[in-house]
């Protein structure tokens, strides 16, 4: 089977990128990361990429007059690489409709909440303020509405009585690493596909997200 081509977009810590690199190293994901693009210079994620000999690009959004111009600059780097999947891994910029439509069906994101709960920022803080007993993360394909594309996998993470937003974020992040690699693996193997705003799983429309429990995927 041909290796899938991936491009990963980051803005910072890059722990999801690191988990994807490790999953490729273990041949859990059959793919090659063709490039990592960061909209910020000197972030840890760029070091992870460089130490795995992956080409890195820093494209700073602050250097562009508009969102569209920044997105266009990224597209000029991404398109010659012909990626099968463009992965948003802690990429903290809202993308233009043009960019999203250009990578239609092959753009994926991870979000630290049980979507549709807590779209946008500060999800851990909101879960604590609302006294939620369960929080979690979602992998979803990207459509033109923020954090609203169809969900592939969700993982539930318990909120503990003594959690603050840092401890909770760390527990969620560890779970993110597992579900993101699992979703990317399935995309690369064509076990899941995304078309016409619907996910197909093993050739059938996925009506509810898959659940990650005890390191296993469960169909609801
Ligand atoms: C993750 O929680 C991700 O879901 C969110 O930002 C965080 C970044 O993590 N969008 P990292 O950069 O992959 O470590």
Question: Keywords for this structure?
Answer:
220 residues; alpha/beta; three-stranded antiparallel beta sheet; 6 helices; globular; binds 5-O-phosphono-beta-D-ribofuranosylamine
Q: What does this entry look like structurally?
A:
Helix content is 31%, strand content 27%. The chain contains six helices and twelve strands. A nine-stranded mixed sheet has the order 3-2-1-4-5-6-7-11-12, sandwiched between helices. The mean pLDDT is 97. Bound molecules: 5-O-phosphono-beta-D-ribofuranosylamine. The site of 5-O-phosphono-beta-D-ribofuranosylamine has 14 residues, from α1, β5 and α6.
Which helices and strands, and how do they pair?
Blueprint: E1 4-10, H1 15-25, E2 31-38, H2 44-51, E3 56-58, H3 67-78, E4 85-88, H4 97-102, E5 107-111, H5 123-129, E6 134-141, E7 151-158, H6 165-188, E8 192-195, E9 198-201, E10 204-205, E11 210-213, E12 216-218
Parallel strand pairs: 1-2, 1-4, 2-3, 4-5, 7-11
Antiparallel strand pairs: 5-6, 6-7, 8-9, 9-10, 11-12
Helix pairs in contact: 1-6
Bound molecules: 5-O-phosphono-beta-D-ribofuranosylamine.
5-O-phosphono-beta-D-ribofuranosylamine is lined by residues 10, 12-16, 45, 89-90, 110-112, 173, 176.
| Cα-atom radius of gyration | 17 Å
Quaternary structure annotation: single chain
Strand tally, please? Answer: 12
Determine the fraction of residues in helical runs and give it as a percent range: 25-40%
Task: List each distinct ligand once.
Answer: 5-O-phosphono-beta-D-ribofuranosylamine
Stretches with pLDDT under 50, minimum 5 residues: none
Strand content: 25-35%
The shape, in one word, is: globular
In DSSP terms (H or I, runs of 4 or more residues), the helix count works out at 6
Overall pLDDT score: 97
Query: How can the largest sheet be summarized?
Result: 9 strands, mixed
Q: What is the SS-derived class?
A: alpha/beta
Strand order of the largest sheet: 3-2-1-4-5-6-7-11-12
Q: What's the helix-strand series? A: EHEHEHEHEHEEHEEEEE
Distance between the termini: 30 Å
